[in-house]
Amino acid sequence: MSSPVTGLHHVTAISGPAQQNVDVYAGLLGLRLVKRTVNFDDPGTYHLYYADGEARPGSFLTFFPWGEGAMPGRIGAPQAVATAYAAPIGASEMWLDRLASHGPLAGVDFDAPEERFGETVLTLRAPDGLAVEIIEAADASGGWEAGRIPPEAALGAFHSVTLRTARPEATMRVLTDALGYEAHGEEEGRVRLVNPQADRARCIDVMRQPGEAGRMGAGTVHHIAFRVPDDDAELEARELLLQLGLQPTPPIDRQYFHSVYCREPGGVLFEIATDPPGFATDEPADALGQRLMLPPQYEPQREAIEARLPPLHVPS
């Protein structure tokens, strides 16, 4: 059975205060806030979703903001240790200028550009320590035309995520045998795998050495999710995980997509997520992210939930 997976769907991380999170990702990086809802398992916490201009799978970076005093995490195995966006060729110069002038105000620092697999990579760190990369790529797409960043530099779909796991070889076997990835080279202990069926968000990098042990908390990635086109494809992917001896959950309704979760042998939490129904299922596509949307089970508690959540100002 060939894998129905078509690349990355989303990355979900834990952050500090919600307004600080919005200032960095909607303000400094110019991403579109496409959904403000709550953690379905903890409605006292926001779940914020950022995406490209059209809110396409393969561009969703989502956060559980734990607020002031959140326990800091430590980036390391087993985690996704960096999330990378694809940017147009030549965008690094603008991003260097922007990060130098606006980054300190948002509490963001950054490194000098480097080259990786023939591509220019710029690494920045959010105030909570989360690592985000901007990689110049010929197939960059989805920048938000109505956003704050000029189209020639705007961030859209992901480029890749980088994994450090306790068992890198076993992790790569899941990626190739169940999720349809193919090895496309190695550089300085970093193995690049590419999904040949993906039209965006195609790459996963796996580090050969686990490195320092991580700890879940603010500034770390909670899980990464892979795309499938529909529910039937999700069941096919789940069967492939079962055939490798893993223990995926049954499908779970997350309102905007349906999810199957599985911890791979190296310790990273993987999710299989469907493209539909999408974020326009409960609010107009041209007004995404402008108000708090609650799943039906929490709607009767709206007044109490809104009273507990801090107000948010989204830069225009």
Automatic annotation (TrEMBL):
Signal peptide: none annotated. It comes from Rubricoccus marinus. InterPro entries: Extradiol_RC_dioxygenase (IPR052537), Glyas_Bleomycin-R_OHBP_Dase (IPR029068), Glyas_Fos-R_dOase_dom (IPR004360), VOC_core (IPR037523). Residues 7-137, 157-275 form the VOC domain. This is VOC domain-containing protein. It holds the Pfam family Glyoxalase. It comes from the Bacteria.
